[in-house]
Automatic annotation (TrEMBL):
Biased composition (Basic and acidic residues): 1-18, 31-61, 76-93
Native organism taxonomy: Eukaryota, Viridiplantae, Streptophyta, Embryophyta, Tracheophyta
Record organism: Musa troglodytarum
Region of interest called Disordered, as start-end residue ranges on this chain: 1-93
GO terms for cellular component: cytosol
Identification of the protein by name: Small hydrophilic plant seed protein
GO terms classed as biological process: response to abscisic acid
Length: 93
């Protein structure tokens, strides 16, 4: 299958509401999903650069504890899981 034909088929799926690009959720076309995914990736990289790898990792630990019923911070407190929020600060602060 040609690349152009494949892109057309993926675009049709995206227009029907399917996510065809990882990170492209919400895009109404293949092009929109590609741009969303790129922007989200760049945003995460920028945040990691601002916070440093250690802070970014710590923030991910806290976020990973969250559920629909409670935030990651509440759960960490309840389960006595230590989250060092001082690592969340920008490195220039």
């Amino acid at each position: 299958m040609s690349s152009e034909q494949e892109r057309r088929e993926l675009d049709e799926k995206a227009r029907r509401g399917e996510t065809v690009v990882a990170g492209g959720t919400g895009g109404k076309s293949l092009d929109a999903q590609e741009r969303l995914a790129e922007g989200r990736s760049r945003g995460g990289q920028t945040r990691r650069d601002q916070m440093g790898t250690e802070g970014y990792h710590e923030m991910g630990r806290k976020g990973g504890l969250s559920t629909m019923e409670e935030s990651g911070g509440v759960r960490a407190q309840r389960e006595d899981i230590e989250i060092d929020e001082s690592k969340f600060r920008k490195q220039n602060d």
